[in-house]
Specification:
The complex is a heterodimer of chains A (about 200) and B (about 200). In chain A, about 50% of the residues lie in helices and about 25% in strands. Chain A is α+β, with helices and mostly antiparallel strands and about 200 residues long. Chain A has a domain of about 130 residues: Jelly Rolls. In chain A, helix 1 crosses helix 2, helix 2 runs antiparallel to helix 4 and helix 6 packs across helix 9. The longest helix of chain A has 23 residues. The radius of gyration of chain A is 18 Å and the shape is elongated. Chain B has two domains: about 140 residues, Sandwich (Jelly Rolls), CATH 2.60.120; about 45 residues. In chain B, strand 3 and strand 4 form a beta hairpin. The chains are: A alpha+beta (about 200), B alpha+beta (about 200). At the A-B interface, strand 5 and helix 5 of A face strand 4, helix 3 and helix 5 of B.
């Protein structure tokens, strides 16, 4: 677990990772098990304060935003990845989404306070915070462009290319909302892809 | 002077506490921006394949980001109005030159921090804390647009924009507004008829 976690942390620092080697190792050691999650269990909920950097070891998680009267799954967290509440960990507010476990597994975490302490001790500054934010901005820009430009079949194909398991991770209704489609458009897109194959 | 105050307010809104060292750095950062620059409609502040990292702050006006892919329809991934930062996002998030153009949609006034000055600031201790705040503001905008695209039908999205961002609605042409909402021109005209 530690090697995978360190690998993910190193990616956050990019070219500067060798400079912050000791700090990254200190971070990796401070991650503690949050719990073995069962399907349906929440990692965080709307209105909670969760300034935590999480590492998903082997669960599958889905993040839901609840705005304008609709609940939409907008992000899937696959195993062996870091994740965080943008609203709480990056923007310093309470959570404006909820994160649910879809397939059982174990997650780990380090509190924002511990991150801050190690950051100060090793002189790491806000480089990780900036890189996390840049990553979030990049992801949202890509998703927004896909929503605006891609036809339903292409949206589905692109999503399946990046995550082949998504059809078994969330319901068809959730997938339709994730892709910004109606249920019937999603089924047409699935049939089209099926026919092409 | 007025533009400095506005910029300070935007930055301060994100800070929960500001230690004395950062206060001085923030003052120098704000003062390093240019005097207000008037830009004409259709002026491009970031051109395609641009690798520059000048940081703009809109005092008054509107800038939209235009993406034109080979053969495909144009799209507007983001639009910026008064009190928004404009940055070469593709360069910032991927390290590669801009794939889009940032175009002034109506006569606008901006202040600009030259990329060389920004690079000098990056060498200073604690500047990353201040720059993180700029990144937070940019994330909020990008995230908000995505959430609207995902949650709202185009009609609801446009109605929301009319109520909450009238400056944007009056600054973009109908073609550009359609692209911003992720719909065709014909669909947007049907929405206008309904309203």
């Amino acid at each position: 677990m530690n090697a995978h976690l360190t690998e993910q942390l190193v990616k956050l620092f990019g070219a500067r990772s060798s400079h912050f080697k000791n700090g990254i190792s200190a971070w990796a050691l401070q991650f503690e098990m949050i719990g073995n999650l069962a399907a349906g269990q929440k990692v965080w909920d709307l209105g909670e304060s969760k300034p935590v950097l999480y590492f998903n070891s082997n669960a599958t998680l889905a993040e839901y935003s609840d705005q304008f009267g609709t609940t939409v799954c907008h992000r899937i967290i696959p195993p062996m990845t870091l994740f965080w509440s943008e609203s709480s960990f990056i923007l310093g507010n309470t959570c404006d989404t909820k994160m649910l476990c879809k397939q059982a597994g174990t997650i780990y975490g380090i509190s924002g306070e511990q991150v801050k302490q190690i950051t100060e001790r090793f002189g790491m500054g806000f480089h990780m915070a900036i890189n996390l934010t840049a990553r979030d901005i990049g992801n949202y820009r890509k998703r927004s462009t896909d929503l605006c430009l891609l036809k339903p079949t292409d949206r589905l194909q692109k999503t399946l290319d990046s995550n082949q398991q998504i059809l078994s991770q969330i319901s068809r209704e959730e997938l339709a909302k994730y892709l910004g489609l109606s249920r019937s458009s999603l089924f047409r897109a699935i049939n089209t892809l099926h026919d092409v194959k | 002077m007025m533009s400095s105050n506005v910029l300070r307010q935007v930055l301060m809104a994100q800070f929960h506490e500001l230690h004395p060292g950062l206060e001085e750095l923030m003052t120098r950062f704000i003062n390093a921006f240019s005097a207000p620059i008037s830009l004409a409609k259709n002026h491009e502040i970031i051109v395609r394949d641009d690798a520059s990292t000048h940081l703009y702050f809109i005092i008054e006006g509107c800038v939209y980001e235009l993406s034109e892919r080979d053969g495909g329809p144009p799209s507007i991934p983001q639009a910026y109005t008064s009190n928004d930062f404009v940055f070469n996002h593709h360069r910032f998030t991927t390290g590669r030159p801009a794939e889009t153009r940032y175009i002034v949609s109506r006569p606008s006034t901006v202040i600009c921090l030259d990329q060389l000055t920004l690079e000098e600031f990056h060498k200073e201790a604690h500047f990353d804390e201040l720059f993180f705040v700029v990144c937070q503001v940019m994330l909020k905008n990008t995230r908000e647009h995505f959430i609207h695209l995902l949650h709202q039908k185009p009609l609801d999205h446009y109605t929301w924009l009319l109520a909450h961002s009238p400056e944007l609605c009056s600054s973009l042409t109908r073609n550009h507004m359609a692209a911003y909402l992720g719909i065709s021109r014909a669909t947007f005209f049907r929405i206008l008829e309904k309203l």
